[in-house]
Specification:
The protein is an alpha+beta fold. Helix content is about 55%, strand content about 10%. The protein starts with a strand and ends with a strand. This is Cytochrome P450.
């Protein structure tokens, strides 16, 4: 239907790889922030508690607020940080695979609840100093909150998201307060010191710290868990699994092909900053532009035979976005994926999918709720 396709509302779907890349990286395409929402005729659509809460997080900010908050985080997962985190990820992966091995002794096991949801929450939880006993609570409210980030959330989904949003605010506000009262040598304490130096208003600083901590946590969980589950599903095809065991040097390429083939996020939205033309289509200022990651990754002009799963493709994808909003946790997600895959290949020579993945009813943040595996 073309690189830019009219949506049934004030928006457009963008499908082509190069056009999606142009939107993600261009300075004249903005995140749909509060200022944009308040300019809309149907602004009540954006008044839901969960929607407004997420609109004030890093992913929905524009310069200069985005620039300030982003710089305060530094280079979250640079090479040295990834090297420091690697032993912890390896330890957690081994622990979770021990649990999987025990369950597989008795037949089929659910990969999602046993491994793919647990590794990301253990990693980011340890990094931020979240008590392990709180991990189940964090997972539950994260699953429920992201309904508000759907393209067309229903009233019932927004109600679930509202309750989860209040729970997230209560939890992470208290986490920041506890860390301020009892500083540690950790990343959250470092953020507190940074914002105390930047913002003299302590209440405002703590509000920003809450939003940053909450956003980094939930952004790390849903997407990485889905990546790990998709990886297990797509790669445990017997021929593929046997080949990767023989050629483990291609593990990174396998992870990238999973990211291209079935990205954890399928839709991201930008706003036209001014009247413009995109791929020959006139776009009015403030129009919504919905970047379709899956379509872009399957553009045959960028990746030949896009419907085929080819570990040695050497292609490219937009799964981590681009420009100023490029995914902060991309390096961490890849660390978790390649670490887990390497250990799975070594420990489970005959691992296979026993039951197909089951998906939550979502369009934007894909979530696989279960995946049966067996030996």
């Amino acid at each position: 239907m073309g690189d830019v396709v009219r949506a049934p509302w004030n928006g457009y779907f963008v499908t082509g790889f190069d056009t999606c890349s142009q939107v993600l990286r261009g300075r004249n395409w903005l995140a749909p922030d509060l200022a944009w929402q308040e300019r809309q005729d149907d602004s009540k659509q954006w008044d839901a508690i969960a929607t407004r809460e997420m609109t004030t997080t890093l992913a929905r900010l524009n310069a200069p607020e985005h620039t300030c908050q982003r710089r305060s985080l530094g280079n979250l997962f640079d090479r040295s940080t990834i090297e420091r985190l690697a032993p912890d990820v390896e330890r957690d992966a081994d622990r979770l695979l021990d649990e999987l091995a025990e369950k597989l002794r008795w037949g089929e096991a659910d990969f999602v609840s046993t491994v793919s949801e647990q590794l990301p929450v253990s990693t980011v939880g340890s990094w931020l100093g979240i008590p392990p006993e709180d991990y189940p609570h964090i997972l539950e409210i994260t699953h429920n909150q992201v309904f508000a980030q759907e393209l067309l959330p229903t009233k019932s989904q927004l109600a679930v998201s509202a309750e989860a949003t209040l729970a997230l605010r209560a939890y992470f506000t208290e986490l920041v307060a506890r860390r301020r009262a009892e500083p540690r040598h950790d990343v959250l304490t470092g953020w507190i010191h940074t914002w105390d130096a930047m913002e003299p208003d302590r209440e405002k600083a703590d509000e920003i710290l809450y939003r940053l901590t909450m956003f980094v946590t939930i952004a790390s969980l849903e997407t990485t868990a889905t990546l790990l589950t998709s990886m297990a599903h797509l790669l445990t095809e017997p021929t593929r699994w046997a080949w990767l065991r023989q050629y483990p040097e291609h593990i990174d390429a396998a992870v990238d092909e999973v990211l291209r083939y079935d990205p954890p996020i399928h839709i991201n939205t930008r706003i036209a900053a001014e009247d413009t033309v995109l791929a020959g289509v006139p776009i009015k200022k403030d129009s919504m532009i919905h970047v379709l990651y899956g379509a872009a990754n399957h553009d045959p002009r960028r990746n030949a035979d896009p419907g085929g799963f080819d570990i040695l493709r050497g292609g490219s994808h937009l799964t981590f976005g681009g420009g100023v909003h490029y995914c902060l946790g991309a390096a961490l997600a890849k660390l978790e994926a390649r670490t887990l895959l390497a250990r799975m290949l070594d420990r489970f020579p005959t691992l296979r999918t026993a039951t197909p993945p089951q998906y939550a009813p979502r369009m934007v943040f894909r979530r696989i709720t279960s995946l049966g595996v067996a030996l």
